[in-house]
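Journal club prep, notes for RB
We'll compare a predicted complex against what the paper describes. Inputs for the flavin-adenine dinucleotide case:
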Amino acid sequence: MLLKDFDLTTRNTLALPARAALYLEVGSRERLEALACDLSLKGLRRFVLGGGSNLVLTGDFDGLVLHIAIPGRRCTGEDADHWYVSAGAGENWNDFVRWTLDKGWPGLENLAQIPGSVGAAPVQNIGAYGLEVADRIAGLTAIDTHTGNPLRLSRADCRFAYRSSVFKQEGWHLDGRTAIVEVTFALPKRWTPLTAYAELAAELDARKNAAPNAREIAEAVAAVRRRKLPDPATHPNAGSFFQNPTVDAEKAAELTARDPTMPSYPQADGRVKHAAGWLIERAGWKGKRLGCVGFHEKQALVLVNYGGARASDLAALTHAVQADVKEKFGVDLIPEPVLL
Ligand SMILES: Cc1cc2nc3c(=O)[nH]c(=O)nc-3n(C[C@H](O)[C@H](O)[C@H](O)COP(=O)(O)OP(=O)(O)OC[C@H]3O[C@@H](n4cnc5c(N)ncnc54)[C@H](O)[C@@H]3O)c2cc1C
């Protein structure tokens, strides 16, 4: 049912107040196809919403919010190397990961416990503990919400990069034009555990588990995440608020000469990735608040709404920290969540 003047406060994990002129929960691909024929909605701005866990609402939205709630998960085939598993875009990501593990199909365990929906996972190429979802995606199906036409994208078509994909690189996808309806994953039959990530390795060590299976890795990941990340239910947040900045080799050498303890991750293209959380902490913002928003006391990269925050409060804090990190380190911090 098309709802008018819909309150989005409970539909974003930062709990920012905003209203949508129109709101529609979409439970099937056919509903999206039919939408394209609805003349009363022609030309309206659109926004495709999943769980709202990677979103900053900057104000009221004068168009149509399409909340994708398409269910379904199934094994669609297998070959010598992979099981192919498809899921509806509205499936909860963590539930889907747990389901694949229960079925005996490993491969997504390092991404356990990430909030949000299956359909949003490819949009920013979610990643954690040494794995990006791009490494497990075979392809996806989307619908053009203006024409109702299907789009089939292979993994290569998605042009995955660090926290990015074709959906973020080409703005029109995010203008509510493209709604992902189903994602197909290729889960490896010759599975090797990815446990090199320091905090995960330490958790497995503490559990005295030198040869964990995929479910045990998911449990360890979940334990680490619960310990270090504030729960949006009690501390509204959108996870990492800034992307880890990547700089050229010359700039990286300058930064590490100034402070050799600065974490640096050399990339295949010669550039070097630094930890945004470390820069924010060193700039003195960890645990610091401006009014009702602030950076979490245990996790400098997570911006928390401590109650009653509006978009302008968030903007004031993010601009202040961006300017300070730029002045102290000469590095630009780019927000990770999508701004609407
Ligand atoms: C506590 C916490 C921890 C987090 N940890 C991580 C982490 O470890 N790694 C990580 O990568 N991210 C992390 N995130 C960010 C977030 O969970 C992911 O980006 C997630 O994939 C967002 O899913 P969503 O359904 O909530 O998307 P939304 O916030 O609803 O939408 C995000 C973007 O995707 C688009 N979108 C959503 N659904 C669709 C669809 N079906 N079709 C087309 N476009 C769509 C939206 O238009 C929007 O542009 C974290 C967030 C929180 C709150």
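Talking point for the session: The mean pLDDT is 95.
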